[in-house]
Design brief:
389 residues, mainly alpha, Four Helix Bundle (Hemerythrin (Met), subunit A), two-stranded antiparallel ribbon, 16 helices, 64% helix, globular, binds heme C
């Protein structure tokens, strides 16, 4: 279980720095610094040789240090300490800590893999933000396509900075060029039924779906894009089936009375009952349902971070991320559940979060010879149990 590394308490190194002067006044200020550092690392992240070049070592190390420190210094910020953002913040901080550690100990390929994963984590926060890109970031215009390895990576960057319309253009470009490439390969090999493992086609479609379900709720817009690919004979069969299912689900949402926001507790309760609780019983919720629900829950909790519903929201976010696994974004499932237990021990949902956490752990460590949970994981589990009131 790859996720288990996240549980270990990361020892933070004490760094004394002269060029980084403490905390930031606004989230924007912090993000500005994080962004410029992140961007300066892009050419290295996308090119292994450049990343491993001994002449670049000092530079990369300084930037990695700056990136992780900038995140740590943003900790006090109001927006970032809301229940929706906090798990993302924790993940990124730990992740960057480990990236720096890998690089410093010459595990450069690990460090590079981690650095490339970082964008997914930035995205886990940004997809919760209500509006599109803020145009005040002038640096955005200095970033061009040639700084990225392929259209997909460029698209993900645009997605990260919330320039969703441009991101979609690039995702579609990626899909088109991959499909053309696969077609050419099939012709060369004269095998009509061969499909090449091409995860960026699927990922690109998933990103487009995410934009119009989780980030903005607009099932019709999602349909407009996705129906274009439905029935495309160049797509592998499993992806064709997935698309068909998405389309069916989106059409169902289009008819639903839900308009994208949950305005009060009553609407919240009705939504959970209709779209989450019942599906728990019959178990036929789809990715579309989960993405729509995640978006609605984030918007609710970010608008009312002190609401009594927070532990319940964390419980559902934990479940949803677990269901979607890592196939859309980096899964924060365990962190949501842990925060639910630690921060709301008196809530009846703390107990449900604990049960869910335990179940995930057990499934993760069950093999043909039974369930073998490692000692350190059991310790974490017991500690979590001790919080429950
Ligand atoms: C814990 C949540 C969180 C994480 C993780 C996060 N951000 Fe942000 N980011 C925010 C918030 C909140 C804003 C909006 C700030 C505002 O407008 O006041 C923002 C805004 C930005 C902006 C300004 C443009 C915009 O979209 O408004 C940039 C650029 C940015 N972040 C870069 C990054 C990068 C790069 C990463 C990953 C290395 C990252 N962020 C990770 C919360 C986060």
């Amino acid at each position: 279980m790859a996720k288990k590394g996240l549980f270990f308490v990361v020892c933070f190194f004490v760094v004394s720095l002269t060029n980084i002067n403490g905390e930031y006044k606004t989230t924007k200020e912090a993000m500005n610094e994080i962004f410029s550092t992140f961007v300066s690392l892009l050419p290295y992240a996308s090119n292994e040789m450049r990343f491993n070049d001994p002449n670049a070592e000092a530079y990369i190390k300084t930037k990695l240090l700056k990136l992780k420190t900038a995140f740590k210094n943003a900790k006090h910020l109001k927006k970032i300490s809301t229940p929706g953002f906090q798990p993302s913040f924790e993940i990124v901080t730990n992740h960057l800590e480990q990236t720096y550690e890998n690089f410093s100990t010459q595990n450069k390929s690990f460090a590079r893999t981690r650095l490339k994963q970082t964008a997914e984590m930035c995205i886990s926060c940004h997809t919760q933000l209500p509006k599109g890109v803020s145009s005040t970031f002038r640096q955005f215009h200095t970033i061009k396509r040639d700084q990225f390895y392929n259209d997909y990576e460029y698209a993900d960057y645009l997605f990260l900075i919330r320039n969703y319309s441009s991101a979609i253009v690039q995702y579609e470009k990626e899909i088109k060029s991959r499909l053309a490439k696969n077609k050419a390969l099939r012709a060369i090999q004269n095998s009509k039924n061969t499909y090449y493992l091409d995860f960026t086609i699927e990922k690109s479609l998933k990103r487009i779906l995410t934009i119009y379900t989780k980030v903005f709720y607009n099932p019709q817009k999602a349909l407009t894009y996705l129906e274009r690919y439905q029935g495309n004979t160049d797509l592998p069969n499993n992806l064709k089936n997935t698309l068909t299912n998405w389309v069916v689900d989106l059409k169902r949402w289009k008819k639903d009375s839900f308009d994208g926001s949950l305005k009060n507790e009553k609407e919240f309760d009705n939504f959970v009952k209709k779209h989450l609780d019942e599906s728990e019983v019959d178990g036929d919720s789809s990715d579309v349902d989960f993405l729509v629900a995640a978006g609605a829950l984030y918007r609710y909790v970010n608008r009312a971070p002190k609401s009594e519903k927070v532990p319940e929201v964390l419980f559902w976010l934990g479940r949803i991320d677990n269901e979607l696994e890592h196939s859309y974004f980096y899964s924060l499932s365990e962190l949501y559940l842990k925060n639910c237990i630690k921060n709301y021990p008196k809530s009846k949902f703390a107990r449900k979060c604990y049960q869910q956490y335990k179940e995930i752990l057990e499934i993760g460590f069950t093999g043909t010879s039974g369930t073998h949970i490692p000692k350190d994981e059991l310790e974490v589990l017991n500690k979590l149990k001790s919080y429950l009131k």
